[in-house]
Design a protein that fits this description.
This protein has helices spanning 6-18, 148-153, and strands at 30-35, 38-44, 54-58, 61-68, 86-93, 104-108, 111-117, 129-131, 139-141. With 156 residues, the protein is mainly beta. The strands form three sheets. The chain has a four-stranded antiparallel beta sheet with strand order 1-2-7-6, with no helix packed on it. The protein has a three-stranded antiparallel beta sheet with strand order 3-4-5, with no helix packed on it. Strands 8-9 form a two-stranded antiparallel ribbon. β8 (129-131) and β9 form a beta hairpin. The chain is elongated. Residues 128-156 are annotated as: Disordered. Belongs to the small heat shock protein (HSP20) family.
Length: 156
């Protein structure tokens, strides 16, 4: 998964301060962590119509898009207007150990939750140690529980 880059926070602040309002895609704040055999991504999308949220997986690239529209009131004089309308976009490179076929998502109370499972071949597994030479029947030994005879006969 992606690693933390402190310069990304500076870039976001510069984008907010230097960009013109209501132009171009905006980023959504998100958290991403691993919990056992899956990653969990949560993104804040308050006030979004769930039908406007679009999630695509293309190879190892996950793209989240959302659109917020605000009512356009005629003949009003705005005192302040801090809520932004427009497109919101976030893209993540998933890496090779992800099961892209089983990614799932839900949206509740303005929070998008995307579950990204780790593929079976990327999960840790035990490897059995076999003994026996050619023509002999192999025997499985437990590497964590050797017998005294195994310890004496093992090469140093």
């Amino acid at each position: 998964m992606a690693s933390y880059n402190p310069l990304r926070d500076v870039e976001r602040l510069a984008d907010v301060l230097l960009s013109e309002p209501l132009r171009g895609p905006r980023q959504m704040p998100m958290d991403l962590y691993r919990d056992g055999d899956h990653y969990l991504l949560t993104a804040d999308l308050p006030g979004m119509d769930p039908g406007s949220v679009d999630i695509d997986v293309d190879g190892q690239l996950l793209t989240i898009r959302a659109e917020r529209t605000l009512p356009d009131a005629e003949n009003v004089k705005w005192i302040t207007r801090e809520r932004t309308a427009g497109s919101f976009l976030r893209q993540l490179s998933l890496g090779q150990g992800i099961d892209t076929e089983r990614i799932s998502a839900s949206y509740d109370n303005g929070v998008l939750c995307v579950t990204i499972p780790v593929s079976e071949r990327a999960k840790p597994r035990k490897v059995e140690v076999m003994t026996g030479g050619a023509g002999e029947t192999p025997q499985t030994i437990q590497a964590s529980d050797p017998t005294p005879a195994q310890l004496e006969n093992s090469p140093a």
